[in-house]
Structure formats: structure tokens, C-alpha cells
Amino acid sequence: MPKKIKRARDIEKVYSVKKFSEKLRRLADALEAGEQFRIQVAGKRVNVPKDAKISIEHERGEGEEEIEFQLKWEY
Length: 75
Description:
The chain is of the alpha+beta class. It has one domain. Helices cover about 25% and strands about 35% of the residues. It contains 1 helix and 4 strands; from the N terminus they run H-E-E-E-E. Strands 1-2 form a two-stranded antiparallel ribbon. Strands 3-4 form a two-stranded antiparallel ribbon. The longest helix has 17 residues, at about 15-35. It is globular and about 50 Å long. The chain starts with 16 loop residues before the first helix and ends with a strand.
């Protein structure tokens, strides 16, 4: 069966501290258990495989800074 073609997507969703903490806690639990992580972002479900590459990115420019916790994988 051929792989389903996925459309490009670039979404940034703002969460309350409580909701963000809950999502981070679930992510940490899945990582520690060596399990895949499932999350819904802006109405779309995303399955993050347990072997996703994990990185932290720091950006600075034009009066603001950003830290991104990134999970990357190929589909």
C-alpha cells in the first residue's frame, strides 16, 4: 500500500502555562518509557515515533529570543 501524501504544514499554537506543562509532562513520560508520543496541535493529530531526533534550539534577533524543543523524524 503506498504511503499517504502529507501536505506541508507550519503551525504555531499558543497554550496556557497549565496546558503546556501537561503536554510537556506527557512528552517526558513517553520519552522516558521509550514510547511513541501522540499530540493534537490545532486540530490535527500527530504521532511522534519513539526514535525521533530530539534537539533544543535557541534563536536571538531583533529584540526577541526563542527556545524551541524540537522532535524531528522522517515519514
